[in-house]
Write a structure and sequence with these properties.
44% of the residues lie in helices and 10% in strands. It has 507 residues and is mainly alpha-helical. The chain binds one RNA strand of 75 nucleotides through strand 6, strand 11, strand 14, helix 13 and helix 19.
Amino acid sequence: MSKVRVRFAPSPTGGLHLGGVRTVLYNYLFAKKHGGDFIVRIEDTDQTRFVEGAEQYIFDCLKWCGIEPDESPLNGGNFGPYRQSERKEQGIYNQYAEQLIKDGYAYYAFDTPEELEKMRSENKSEKNPSPQYDHTIRLKMKNSLSLLPNEVEQLLAASTRYVVRIKMPENEIISFDDIIRGEIKNETGLVDDKVLLKADGMPTYHLAVVVDDYLMQITHAFRGEEWLPSAPVHVLLWKYLFGLSKMPKWAHLPLILGPSGKLSKRDGAKYGFPVFAMNWTDPKTNELIEGFKEKGFLPEAFINLLALLGWNAGTEQELFTKEELIENFSLERVHSAGAKFDYEKAKWFNAEWIKKLAVGKWQWAVKEDFNSKGITINDNAKFEMILNLVKERCTLLTDFYVQASFFYNAPETLDADAVKPKWSADKNQFFVDWIVALNGLKNWDAVSIENSFKELAIEKAIKPGELQLPFRIMLVGGKFGPPVVDIAAIIGKKETVNRINYALNLF
RNA sequence: GCCGCGUUGGUCAAUCGGCUAAGACGCCUCCCUUUCACGGAGGAAUGACGGGUUCGAUUCCCGUACGUGGUACCA
C-alpha cells in the first residue's frame, strides 16, 4: 500500500470550532498511526468570504494543540501550492472543467443570478420548497445543453459570464464505502447539477476537493457528516476524471452537537463555554468568541477530550497522551452518531491533566495569567511549589488566581461572617498572645508554627479546631485553600503577623 | 417537501445474538479531612416505538416517530 496521506482543508472564514479541531485531530492521529503525512490545504475559493487573519489563526490553533502539519502553505511540500486560490492562478482547475465538458459530463451555464432566482421562485411550491437546478429543469435553462452549438459559441466569444455545472445522470445509483458508516447509496437524479467552476474562474469545493486530492495523492479523506449528501458528486467526478480505483477512502465524521442541536459559535456565549480552540475576534464585527486556551485549558486535555468525543479505545482508559492516542486510534471505533458536547466532562479532563502533568509544563501559562491580573512572579521555584500545593483544587488554569493569589497579596476582603458568630474575647486574646510567641519563633516552618499554635491553645484551654478557621480567614480571606500552617510558612512571619493584626481589628 | 445520516441513563459511551446492560462525567449518601479540594466506599439513573427473523434480541431486517445534515456561483 502506498504511503498514507490525509488532509485537513479548512476554509479561512474565521474561527476554528470544536468540530473542526476534532476533524484535524482524527486526520492527524490516523496519519501518524500509519506513518503517513498530514497535509493542510487552504480552501479559499470563495473570495467573498475572505477574512483577514483567519488563516494564521488556524495555524496558531494547530500549533497550540501540538498538531504540526507535514505539508502546508507555511512549511511547504512537494505538492504545492497549498492554497486553492494560488492553484487556481496556475490554471489547474480550469483544464479539468474543460475536460469534463469535452467528455459530456459537464456543461456551460449562462444563467444570471437573476434568472436563477426567477427559476427558483417560479418553481417553488409547498411540495418543493427549494427547487434545484437539475435534470428536470436544465433544458429550460440557458446552457450548452439547451442552446444550439453556434449560440454557445457566440456567447463564449462575447465573453459572457458562465459557470460550469456537472451533468448529473438521471437515473443512476452511486454507492461508495464509508469507513465509519459502511455502504452509502444515492440516487443521482435527486442531486442537482452542482456548479463546478464559478463565473470568476474559481472552482467550487466540489471540483477542488477532487482535483486537489488527486494531485496531492490523498489516500484517505475525512470530513464532517454535512458532506454526505454531496458525496455522490465527488464520487462521480473521481469516476469521470481519474478513475474510481484512485479515489481516496472516505470517512464522514459525526457532528458535534451543542445543548440544543447543532453546536454553534453562539452556544458559547449562551451556555458559558468556549467553542473555539483559541480566542477569535471577528475583524468586521469585533465580536469575540472565547477559546479553550484562554479559558484555561491545557492543550493535552483539549485534544484528549476531543478525541473521546465520538471515539473510544474500547477499553476503560479515558486519559490519553497524544502518543497514546496515535497508538490506539482507529476509525472503525469512531461512533457514527453525533455527540453532544458536555462542558462538565471537558472540565474534568482538564482537572485530570493538571494533576497528571508536571507543573513545569504549564507554569508559564499561569504566570502569564497572574501577570495580567497584576501579580508579578519573580521566584519561579517558589511559584512552582505553590502551584503544586493548590493544583488539585483547580480545574482550569485560570482557577489558580483565586486559589493562590493570597500567597502574594493579602486578601482584599475577609469572610468575617464565618468567624464572628463564634468569636470571643478569649479567642482574640489568643491571637494577641500568639503574635508574641510567633515573633519569638526560631524556625519559621509549618511544623514549628503548628506546634506553637497547639501549645498556646492547650495552655489557654481552647480547642485548636476552633481557632484554625479564624486563622485561615485571616490569611486566606475565605474557607478554602491548602493547610493553613503551610500558607503561613510560605508567606513568612512578618506577613503572617500583619494579616493577624489586620483581621483582629475587624472581628 | 425531498434526500442522506443517526437513535443504549441528563451527557460521553461498552456490547459485535445469551444481559442480572460495563465504565466515565454530573448528581446524591457516607468515609477521610478541625477549611476547601483530592482520594476512597456506596446509590439513583439507560436499550425511542411497533412489527418481523431467531431457541433467544440492545445487538440482524422492515416500518413509524424523533433528532440532525443537505437541498447556494458557502465550505
